[in-house]
Amino acid sequence: MIMKKILGLAFVAIIFTACSDDSDDTDIGNWVERSVFDGVPRSNAISFVIGNKGYMGTGYDGDDYLNDFWEYDIEGDYWSQKADFLGKERSSAIGFATNSKGYAGIGYDGDVELSDFWEYNPDLNEWVQKADFGGGTRRSAVSFSIDGLGYIGTGYDGENDKKDFWKYDPATNEWKEVIGFGGNKRRDATTFNINNKVYLGTGISNGLYLDDFWEFDPSTEQWTRLQDLNEEDDYRIVRSNAVSFSINGLGYIATGYNGGAIGSVWVYDPITDTWEDTTSLEAYVRQDAVSFSSDNKGYVLLGRSGGLYLDDNYEFFPNEEYDEDD
Asked: Of the four listed, 83, 86, 109, 225, which is most buried by Cβ atoms within 10 Å?
């Protein structure tokens, strides 16, 4: 019995400390643990931010698909449960916010991919169904909002990986396809916004991790390919199931999966189109997490590490010295 306990503790320690070999901890960049999520630990949830509140819901807890929905007070550091998402329970859905409303939809309910799409009003704490996603059923897509419009693209429709993008106008409740993305098909990619531009990268297709990286300009609806995420000896950021956020004009890609869960974090400078490693997440390595990005704050929370589903919540301070005791 004692030997079994020792082996079990060793296994947990390995999960906790293991990080991807593509990033080493640096002296600058510090993670601080915040209020643990009040609900069920989960992966593949949706998230968005409205004002100083982060919202998170749906997902998968290892047994069940979920539709509960929660609010995180970023300034107060506490959680409150809100009205359940009214669509089917699901994972691998999308979420974004624009014009003080939140949006969630598509995903996977354990049997089929979905196409429904919903609007959340935080003032009324109400969900209202909107026009189905214009690109049809899918899961594991990316989403973002910019200039008062929402976008959904890439993903998996149950048979094929996708590379199309669609624009949603909340004023008209209409979808329109956006032509011109020259990247690869993919699922489980990630995006972040900096200075009215959107950056997209990572993901997987046909068993291959992708290293192309793209900038989207909403004023022209044009995609521009930037330096790849695999630049010889300088950096290698290929992965899927990662999260991203932006702080003070820089973008961050964190955690994910590449043959195993990853804890490494990389920072992107759009002025020089270059990447540098920063302090890895000071917690369990993980995939399928969610992130919040608000003003000058960035958070990584939830997800899973192997079969362990997580409910922790960490804030990143990019200019603080690393402190292992936080």
From this structure: 109
Q: Do 207 and 215 meet the contact criterion of CB atoms below 8 Å apart?
A: no
Angstrom distances, CA of residue 106 to CA of 10, 93, 109, 191, 203? 39, 5, 9, 17, 18
Q: With 70 as the cut, is the pLDDT of residue 23 above it?
A: no
Mean pLDDT value of segment 96-107: 97
**Distance separating alpha carbons of residues 216 and 194, to the nearest angstrom:** 10
Q: 3-class SS at 16? A: helix
Report helix, strand and coil shares of the chain as percent, to nearest 5.
5, 55, 40
CA-wise closest residue to 307 among 284, 323, 290, 291: 284
- Does this model's pTM top 0.85? My answer is yes
Residue 326 to residue 323: CA distance in whole angstroms = 6
Structure tokens at 84: 């359940």
User: 260-272 burial string, b = 16+ CB within 10 Å, else e?
Assistant: ebbbbbbbbebee
Token pair belonging to 298: 């960035």
**What's the rounded Cα separation, in Å, for the pair 304 and 86?**
25
What confidence score (pLDDT) does residue 26 get? Answer: 56
Distance CA 266, CA 320 (A): 16
User: Residue 138 pairs with which residues in a beta bridge?
Assistant: 114
Tokens 């993980």 — which residue? 286
Is residue 53 packed enough to be buried (19+ CB in 10 Å), middle (13-18) or exposed (0-12)? buried
Instruction: Give domain 2-321's CATH number out of 2.120.10.80, 3.10.310.10, 3.90.700.10, 1.10.3720.10.
Output: 2.120.10.80
